[in-house]
Amino acid sequence: MYPRSLTTFFGGLATATLLLTLAPACTAPETDATPSASEAMTVTITEDRPWSERMALSIMQRAPVAWQNDFQERPRWNYTLGLVLQSVAEVGDYYQDPALLAYARDYGDTMIYPTGEIRDYELTKFNIDHIAPGPLLMDLYAATGEEKYLTAMNTLMRQLEWQPRTTEGGYWHKLRYPWQMWLDGLFMGEPFQAEFASKFDHPEAFDHIAEQFVLAEEKMRDPATGLLYHGWDESRTQRWADPETGCSEHFWARAIGWYAMGLVDVLDFFPEDHPRRDELLAILNRTLEAVVTVRDPETKTWWQVINLPEREGNYLESTASTMFAYAMIKGVNEGYLDERYRQLAQESYDGILETFIRVDADGSVNLTDGCSVAGLGGDPYRDGTFEYYISEPVRDNDPKGIGPFMRASLEFEKAATTAKL
């Protein structure tokens, strides 16, 4: 069922010689303490390593304990940590680095109790963001065979089974955001559901998975530009929702990035003979065609409000740029996109390295200029205006950017390796 090398690789950790000294891999779930100086890792990050490894090692250096990666003071179950640590695990798997894999496993051992209960998780909130660490649990279950991970995954699937939906079947983003679909949610829920359906033989799920992407495009795509609005409110009761269309006002780059990443990750598990697979491929191509049209012509990266580069206060934003680069290069590598996207992806990746990557004196790699967060509604209320999107804090090493950066880097590195064979 699990052909990946993680299973045997984790088994070899006991005898492997690690190049790094880490905090213990199996942190007790009750322990929230920051590691002491003696527990902190030391590592030399040299330029001869590939970018994916350099970023993964830099992450470990900045946050000696895995759950510290999202600027937080206690362990949290959230999509950002799932994204970053699954990305670290993928890099570790590809380069056969047991230290990276142990680091990713540390989060699973911290957040999943021996009973399979998920720490810091409430199913009844029906927060689709909380499904996103599911693929990491899938990897950990494949690697260890520990039943606690399967139990936790079944809990996430139970949430999806009961997730509130629009009248046409689209998932609400959260229970407290009624009748709303956000583009972000397509990445949060569907890659895990597709992988679970593939590996645990639930073929009936794929129609529903395809429908989520189709509905999102149908409700949120602007026919004039092909770009996708951030959110859609079926009830039209939110202040941010257009009274006619139900859509939010602007095209937020990262929202479209989430959607594009969700598509390429879902397609990994979508049966090739499924009648709706071609619909997803067409949506991916339409979406990225529109995205490339509004790319910054100089840096080949993207703006925070993606189609308004001339507006004062707008800025080139790293997290969305890494997401688009990842979606393009993976799409080409897997045959989801035409080969012409390889050059487009390379241009944008080079632009990311030039525009957003900073290497410190100790060799650690940083991703700059990431939007810390953006949403719609809530308290305080987020109205979806241009002024709102440019007002959110901008920071370095946002996990929503460093995860896709590792993934994009790894896709380029895989392609380079294949080209040499």
From TrEMBL:
Keywords: Hydrolase, Signal
GO annotation terms (biological process): carbohydrate metabolic process
Record's signal peptide: 1-27
Family matches, as Pfam families: Glyco_hydro_88
Superkingdom of source: Bacteria
MF GO annotations: hydrolase activity
Family annotation (InterPro entries): 6-hairpin_glycosidase_sf, 6hp_glycosidase-like_sf, Glyco_hydro_88, PolySaccharide_Degr_Enz
Keyword Signal: yes
Name the record gives this protein: Glycosyl hydrolase family 88
Species this protein is from: Neolewinella marina
